[in-house]
Amino acid sequence: YDQVLLEHKVVPIKVRSLVGLLPLIAVSVIEEEQLERLPGFRKRFEWFLANRKDLARCIIQSRSGKKRWLISAVPFARLQRILSRLLDPDEFLSPYGIRSLSKYHEKHPFTVDFKGHVQSVSYAPGESQTLSFGGNSNWRGPIWFPINYLIIEALDRYYNFYGESLKIEYPTGSGNELTLKECANDIRKRLVRLFKSDENGLYPWQDGDTRYNEIASDQPRHQFFEYFNPETGKGHGANHQTGWTALVATLIQQSYE
How many CA atoms lie less than 13 Å away from 117 in the CB half-sphere? Predict the structure, then answer.
């Protein structure tokens, strides 16, 4: 959770948001062959293992019988707990990707009162419902491609280390267990679904707007919106955000691979 310092008093902001998911993306797998090519790094790595065991046992895991290490900001027990939230349809997992705020806050908004100034955070799948904190969506629920992409990439790295030995209930509560690679692939499909047409030739990001379908063309015309409604797929914000929403092309390529 985040924290705010108010007049020398620490107030925990118990909001289930991407803040709590971001530690997942701080992960890397190191192979023995890589250490052999990096003698300077190896020396510092081995010093760290020997002299900072208090930290090493939290962020470094090794596989018995294999000379490879997982460096992660999330220890194994916490990884499972975070994934149970991440992959829960009632929390972060939506039909179109990972929400930036848990749907839990739709019925349970978080409120803080500081000297009569009341501020609250609630789930807003599209545009923000308040001008507080700058208005706009302010990451209060929509699907954002850059963070979704980094989370998918992280799940692939965890799978690279744990392989078939680690299976997670997906979606949470379904009783169906998948590897992290299978979970990552399904999240890819959910994001790509934003750009897949229905039986009427409409795309989720259009939200029923047929203007682009009326333009004579033999190719579909897509808008690369800044963020998307996780419940309907409707595009919001700037509609030319190719700087990150065009990552959908990479997700499509990875799905075929």
Answer: 4
